[in-house]
Design goal:
Elements: H1 14-25, H2 31-49, H3 55-69, E1 73-74, H4 87-93, E2 95-96, H5 98-111, E3 116-120, E4 125-129, E5 137-140, E6 145-146, H6 149-160, H7 176-193, H8 197-210, H9 215-227, H10 231-244, H11 249-262
Parallel strand pairs: 1-2
Antiparallel strand pairs: 3-4, 4-5, 5-6
Protein name: UPF0162 protein
Family: Belongs to the UPF0162 family.
Organism: Vibrio inusitatus NBRC 102082
């Protein structure tokens, strides 16, 4: 693993940063194929959109291409699958989650000259198009539909309760590093659910290269090590979490885990 994988993320488009991340987790990914696919999609979009002169009509044409002609769609059936977080798989399957589909659309939109940005809304990743002298348009990248502010408020209330209020910070532009950090968490969670612990461990180590002593990340790494039968390393991670977060409810559970680890035979690695 390169400790410098995150250097220069801000200079990359979101999908390029995500591809770098995914290639760290799974070196077998064909990054060149991904880059060629993006280039091919951009060329095709440029040809189609050249027929439109109105900017909003051009953007609508891009949405139609992406979701109808190319057939990209949100993965309703297997939302939490790791395939929805690996860029290569999203391009192959034409299915994804808001952040992975949004990253593709954001890349195309920015390359085509649209004033489009990513928003890390509390419930999901959004896209915003800030037209000059007009109200911004918000797009749900899961299905390509425009989203009104009252809908965003209902999403927020569904997540945080009826007292929730839509605030400007909920709709602020997200930087690439922040989104990649969350993307990394999504990928790690998916791999852990799929019991792909070796790759999940790589995700955890990548996260710790960003925030070296995050006790919650170290706790998760301990769990992964335990699943990989690396019990003594897991013990150290659990003990670190208990020391740093003694009042967290998880600390008591981890103390029980430590007792079970004591009963395990020592495995040398």
């Amino acid at each position: 693993m390169s400790d410098l994988w995150f250097n220069g993320l801000e200079d990359l488009e979101l999908v390029e940063g995500a591809l770098r991340l995914c290639s760290q987790v799974d070196p077998s990914i064909n990054a060149t194929w991904v880059e060629l696919q993006l280039e091919k999609m951009l060329d095709e979009a440029e040809q189609v959109l050249s027929r439109e002169t109105n900017e909003k009509a051009r953007f609508d044409a891009l949405l139609r291409m992406f979701y109808q002609e190319w057939g990209f769609q949100g993965d309703y059936e297997n939302y939490f699958s790791s395939e929805n977080a690996f860029v290569e798989k999203v391009l192959q399957r034409k299915k994804g989650i808001p952040v992975s589909l949004g990253a593709l659309l954001l890349y195309l939109g920015r390359k085509l000259g649209f004033p489009i940005e990513g928003v890390s809304f509390p419930t999901q990743f959004l896209l915003v198009v800030k037209w000059p002298d007009m109200k911004p348009d918000y797009v749900n990248p899961f299905n390509g539909e425009y989203v009104a502010k009252h809908t965003l408020l209902s999403w927020l209330k569904g997540a945080e309760g009826n007292a929730a209020m839509l605030k400007p910070e909920h709709l602020s532009i997200a930087d690439t590093s922040t989104i990649i950090g969350r993307w990394l968490g999504v990928l790690k969670g998916a791999l852990m659910r799929e019991e792909r612990y070796t790759q999940a461990l790589e995700c955890s180590n990548l996260a710790l290269s960003l925030v070296p002593e995050d006790p919650y990340e170290i706790r998760d790494r301990g769990f992964i090590y335990q699943q990989l039968n690396c019990f003594q390393i897991a013990r150290k991670d659990y003990e670190f979490f208990i020391e740093k977060c003694p009042n967290d409810p998880a600390a008591d559970m981890l103390k029980l885990q430590l007792k079970s680890i004591d009963d395990e035979p020592v495995v040398l690695h």
